[in-house]
Structure formats: structure tokens, C-alpha cells
Design brief:
Blueprint lengths: L2 E14 L7 E7 L10 E3 L7 H10 L3 H5 L3 H40 L8 H9 L3 H10 L20 H53 L3 E9 L4 E11 L1
Antiparallel strand pairs: 1-2, 1-3, 1-5, 4-5
Helix pairs in contact: 1-6, 3-6, 4-6
């Protein structure tokens, strides 16, 4: 796609009058609309945008695809949402970790539980049973021998009161709920990026349609020709884009 400039030059020669009047008059001479002696000037072509590139930009960072498609007025909301979602995620992650660590320290203080090297299921069992023997009896009745804990291998616990056991269980459930919320935030971040990518592709198509509408149009541009302290003439440019 090329843009050709056709030149029509209007030369205005100044003729000075008397020094007392301090004015200038111009006479004009119109040249041919297209002159073989005047070369055609090629302007920089208008480039279309790639929808694939816009989508990739938005998947990497929401709002950047819209910026690429000259639509950041819409894309900025996706970018702001991205920042807010990541802030929420780290807040949930930190808060849930604090509650979980406090709950495990509580179990160590009030049940004698050894918390190092234990998985999450161990702490679920600590919150559901008063001591290790009660838990083992339940597993033996259910014939789940593989899940029986060895008391002398660091899996012993015994709560000092039923109230403290229930309080620990409440703390543990609360921490799991907060940590699960952080996972939902990650899912929302993914959705935000997909929505931004779809919007970026749409804005790219709008941009390309606008470029197509401009093709084949004609318009005039004017500028003064200066060769000294006063204008020597006026240049009129007839521009056609195709």
C-alpha cells in the first residue's frame, strides 16, 4: 500500500512598494497540477495491526494489547484490575499463612503435637480427635491399617481440653478458607487476561477497519515557502491514499 503526493505549487513573488508604505504585494503563478519535472513523493504507508500480537500482549499483561491497538482508554481498566487482583492474592496468601502458623503453634502448646514435617491431613486429624489413640482406634475399626499413626514416631498428641481442640479446628478451617480464596483470585486473574485479550482483538479489528476507510481518500495540505525573512510563496499538496 502506497501513498502518493501530487503537488500543485502556487508561487507568490513579492514586489516591494515604497519604503514609506512598508507593505508587500504578491503576484501568483499557478503551475500545472502534475508536472513531469516534479517527482512524486512517497509517504510512509499506514500499517495495520495484528490481532494475534494484540492478544499475546494482553495475555502477558492486560491492557497492553489495547494499548497496541490504540485503545488504552478501555485497556487501562484491565491493567488496574490486574494490579488489584495480584494485591488481593498476596494479601490472602499472607493472611492465611499467618492463621495456619498460629493454629499449628496452638496445637503444639495445648496438645503436644510435633508439627515439623507433617502434612495437612495430620493437622485435620489433630483437630478431629482428642488424642492419637482415639484416632488409631477409629482407623482400626474402619480397617484402614495403613493410616494408623506410630505413637513413638512423632505422631502423638493429646489435647488438654475439648474447648482448645475445637478452637484449633476453627483456626485451621479459617486458614484453609482464606488460602482457598487466594486460589479463586488466581482464577479471576486468568479470566481478566482472557477478557483483555478478546477486547484487544476487537479493538485491532476496529483499528484496521478505520485504516481501510481512509484508503482512497483525497485531501489538501498547505504550507509556506520561505527563503529568507519573508515568504516566497505557498505550496499546496493534493494527497491521495490508496
Amino acid at each position: 500500500m502506497k501513498i502518493i503526493r501530487l503537488l500543485t505549487i502556487l508561487l507568490l513573488s513579492s514586489i516591494p512598494l515604497s519604503a514609506q508604505e512598508n507593505l508587500y504585494h504578491f503576484r501568483s503563478e499557478l503551475t500545472a497540477a502534475v508536472s513531469p519535472s516534479l517527482p512524486l513523493q512517497e509517504l510512509a504507508p499506514v500499517q495495520k495491526k495484528s490481532p494475534v500480537t494484540a492478544v499475546l500482549y494482553s495475555l502477558l499483561l492486560p491492557g497492553m494489547g489495547e494499548l497496541y491497538a490504540d485503545g488504552f482508554d478501555e485497556g487501562r481498566y484491565s491493567l488496574i484490575a490486574e494490579g488489584g487482583l495480584w494485591l488481593t492474592y498476596f494479601s490472602f496468601l499472607q493472611y492465611g499463612s499467618w492463621i495456619r502458623d498460629d493454629a499449628r503453634s496452638f496445637a503444639m502448646s495445648h496438645a503436644g503435637a510435633q508439627i515439623n514435617g507433617k502434612d495437612d491431613q495430620y493437622f485435620v486429624n489433630v483437630g478431629n480427635f482428642g488424642d492419637t489413640y482415639e484416632y488409631n482406634e477409629k482407623k482400626l475399626r474402619d480397617r484402614e491399617l495403613a493410616k494408623v499413626y506410630a505413637v513413638d514416631a512423632g505422631y502423638y498428641w493429646k489435647w488438654d481440653s475439648e474447648e482448645n481442640r475445637k478452637e484449633f479446628r476453627t483456626m485451621r478451617v479459617s486458614s484453609e478458607r482464606v488460602l482457598n480464596n487466594s486460589r479463586f483470585v488466581i482464577a479471576t486473574i486468568v479470566v481478566n487476561r482472557i477478557v483483555s485479550a478478546i477486547n484487544a482483538a476487537r479493538l485491532t479489528r476496529v483499528y484496521n477497519h478505520r485504516v481501510n476507510d481512509e484508503l482512497g481518500s483525497w485531501w489538501l495540505e498547505s504550507s509556506l515557502i520561505n527563503d529568507g525573512s519573508k515568504p516566497d510563496g505557498m505550496k499546496l499538496s493534493i494527497i491521495h491514499r490508496f
